[in-house]
Amino acid sequence: MDLGAINPVLLVASLMVSATPILLAAIGELVVEKSGVLNLGVEGMMITGAVVGFAIAVNTGSPLLGFGAAALASAVLSLSFGVLTQYLLSNQVATGLGLTLVGLGLSSLIGKPYEGVKSTTLPDLHIPLLADIPVLGPMLFQHDLMVYLSIALVAAVWAVLKFTRFGLILRAVGESHDAAHALGYKVVRIRLMAIAFGGACSGLGGAYLSLVRVPQWTEGMTAGAGWIALAIVVFASWKPWRVLIGAYLFGGVTVLQLNLQAAGTRLPVEYLSMSPYLITILVLVIISARGYHGAPASLGRSFYASS
Amino acid sequence: MIRLVKRPQPSRFWTAVTPILAVLLTMVVGGIMFALLGKPPLEAIRIIFWDPLFHPQFAAYSRPQLLVKAGPLILIAIGLSIGFRAGIWNIGAEGQYIMGAITGAGVGLAFYPMESFIIFPLMVIAGALGGWAWGMIPALLKVKFGTNEILVSLMLVYVAEAWLASVSSGLLKNPEGRGFPGSRNLQQYDSAANAEIIAGTGMHWGVVAALIAVIFAYVLLTRHIRGFHIRLTGEAPRAARFAGVKPARVVLFCLGLSGALAGMAGLFEVAGPAGQITIDFNSGYGFTAIIVAFLGRLHPVGILLAGLLMALTYIGGELAQLMLSLPGASIQLFQGMLLFFLLATDVFTNFRVQLGRKGAA
Question: How far is B293 from chain A (nearest CA, A)?
Fold first, then answer.
């Protein structure tokens, strides 16, 4: 094995790229869970976003249009979950699983003609001055638009939740929907908005996988990324900046194991490729051993206005 | 204005009717989907639901397939349903299925080429133990640390898949396979083969096990104190604690049982219809079984019927692929839609729909 073959600058740079899809999905799911809804369909929405984004980008030649379409498609899909759980009061866990199964089926149906097709990808931005700093420049300042957008999104979610009236209402709905309802807030409407936002973010994350990270369409390409995003929200104790840390840590593990595979360790490839999942479990154990701090009190409970 | 009024108890009538309603809705929406794909909708529905059983040419082949496909689905779904009843969400049955297949086939291959009647029972036990052990990981973590069993059991599916890839090109690889990944074919090894019990029916030991599991689950849930505890934990966790039910025991029991049944299903599959351990040996039964469990209303007899129906859509889907060149993925979507419509129509089970303005208080 030749550890010298691993370039730390490239490692950090590719870490940011590999973390972005999960970061986008996780920050969306954080908002959903903050409103008191547990949407386990992240995987299904991500893969739908991946295929829709890819298809639109191939047909129009514009990756940005692809991202937009992916966000829209996943938001619409997530609203089916919203209607079921909010109006028809179905079980959130079961409905989320159903959403994942529907998304997986739908995506492979749409994606069949696009297997093996190439798409244009997002160009890397060369941020003036900053990109020219040695070491730090290629590490942090020569990425594509979505990498920076995902970080900006984390900041925006943090600021909205913490400083704005809307953020306060959203958190109130998530902590106690009955109290929020008694105060006259439209619980169902706010939750539907959160669900659609979460869907759009998952769609962007999925499209990032198929348009930038890989970049092509293969069936089942999300490979559990949506579930890992769910785990990261727990890891982050429902705090936006910790979602960023969690996603980058996870991205780091993924990139490191890929680099180790390429460098030719004596560890078999299969054991390396199961490592991200094992580490996710390990992190979940460590976090839950401390107790669930910060989980919204109404998380996963159906809201039924009795009067 | 439409208002929903909560029923004091779930309606028995609607509990039975919603699955049928969901199937009909799926047929309608699925038909529209097929029409959009440019296929004749009515013919597609007929091929999926009718032809596998009654087509003059294909039925002879596809009828036995019904039991072959329904066996593992029912076996896994029974285990899952018991956990779901208690509010314990094991969604990693696919991983437990893979591990059961690996351990079971591993025991069988260890005895090769010895012939003895004891080998197959040993393999079944090993398969169940493999699935049980894989299910115990999320169970123990949940009991010890309060870790979410949904995420852990799902993560373990990917770990199991990586392990499957590892053993099929390493530990269990056929030494006479000319370097191709995949184990020896267990169907050609008489003591380990899970052959048809009655030729031409598709009835193998996995189907027998599934039927036993249905009866066992029925007795457990309706006649046994442990089944009562499971239902109590799901419906009123606080009451269950006051009644002296130990939540940890319920978690361990439910995840262990569903893991063991999924592991057995994996073993019966690898020793029977699949024949060998290969990289892509698993075919998503563990996930489809979730739909089966819900479609069967988490009731053993319902699951039996739902498993047969879901097996029908599998075979019908293959037939439609053959006859109409319908994409294989559309049947997956079809199954997902079925679960969605079931959950949607379930609102009638728990709520009464009231039209008009609400009356004076």
Answer: 11
